[in-house]
Structures are given as structure tokens and as C-alpha cells.
Amino acid sequence: MPTDRRPGSSQASPKPTSCTRTRGKKGTPHPDPEDPPRQRGNKVKGHGCWENDRIPILGVVDRASGELSLKVLHSSGAREVHPEMLKRTAPGTVVNTDEWRGYDWLPKDGRIRKKVCHKLESGGHEWARDDDGDGIREVHCNTSEGIWTGLRNFLRPFRGVHKQYLAQYVAVFEWAHNLKTTTTDFMALLLGRHPLPQAAGP
User: Fold this and answer.
1) What are the residues facing 58 on neighbouring strands?
2) Angle value at C-alpha 186, between 182 and 192, nearest 5 degrees
């Protein structure tokens, strides 16, 4: 690597390198002084929604295949969650959830709900439970919790993403998570090219 010397020093130092900053799409301008931009670090309590800038993201992951499906929503109410869950699960599917009452409708639509109560009425905590007595605590949300950690780590380098563009970032994360092998078509799409034509069979 080319080096230069500092004035008055016999030690060589590397030439300065350029700094590339990775930024996400930022907020909408607020010209009205009565409507200032929201400060970073949203501390609004309760369930998130589009209006309070705590955007809910629905996530469904198949434990057997590892396939992930994510959807950015405007609210966390049953009106939006219900149809999206039905699209992503088949009747008879075992759905592991937490104790949130927003999932209470699952059995009525043919899904088998297994819920883990993070806050027990006795005052304790429950993170996983063994229902079938085989010694394996199969009822848990740890798979989904790991997904949310991965998504936060994916978004963190962008230092803030505008909610209007959040779905695009989430789609990239979902795609990368579900990508099991790096194929020629994947590299072509990554470089902005159309997938290469497939070779004709004999």
C-alpha cells in the first residue's frame, strides 16, 4: 500500500482513505414550525402504528424450512393482521405465538394456536414450554425473536429509514434470508442485469 511520511516523523502512515457513509431514506421536510420533526429514539408506549412512527411488521417463519415472510403494516390490529396471517398459513397449521389477544381468532379459522405466556398471572415468566412431554420445549417464539434481531442489525447501518421506504428494506432482508445459495441469476439481479437465459436442453 502506498504510504507517506508525516512532517517531522520517520514513521510511514497510510494515505487517507475515503469514508463511505451508508444512509437510509430520511424523513419528510417539516416547514411548519408548529409541526417539528420527531426526535430520534421514539419512546411512544403501546402498540406501534403508522401514525406514531412505530411501524409494525408482521413476520411468519416456517420452522421446518426456515422460509420467512414479512409484511409492513399500518397498524397491529386484527383488521390488518388477520388477512395477512391467513395468506401465510394453511388450515391445520400449528402457529406458535405469544399471549397477545390479537391472535385469539386463529383457532376459529382452522389454525392450531400454541401460545407461550411471557408474563404469567403468578408473576413469573415463561419463555418456552414442553406440551407433549418429550423433554423438548417446542412452544416458543424464539425463532421469530431471532428474526427481529437480525432485521434490526440489518437496518442499523442505515442510521434511520423513512417509513415510506421501510417495506423495500424489509423486502431485501426477507429475500436475503430466504436465499439459500448464491446463484448466477442472483448475481445478475444484484448487478442490475436481467437473469441470464437458460441453456436449451438436448
Assistant:
1) 71
2) 145
- CATH number for position 118: 3.30.420.10
Q: What is the pLDDT of residues 114-141, one digit of tens each?
A: 999 888 877 788 889 999 899 999 999 9
Residues shown for the chain = 202
In a domain, 26, yes or no: no
Report how far residue 106's alpha carbon sits from residue 114's, in angstroms, rounded to the nearest whole number. 10
pTM of the predicted model, to two decimals?
0.71
Of the candidates 60, 122, 118, the one whose C-alpha atom is nearest the C-alpha of residue 85 is 60
The residue behind cell 420467512 is 68
Helix axes 142-155, 166-178, angle to 10 degrees: 120
- 29-53 residue pLDDT tens: 767 777 666 666 566 777 788 888 8
Report how many domains make up the chain: 1
- Calculated CA dihedral for residues 152, 104, 50, 142, nearest 10 degrees: 0
CA gap 150, 188 in Å, rounded? 25
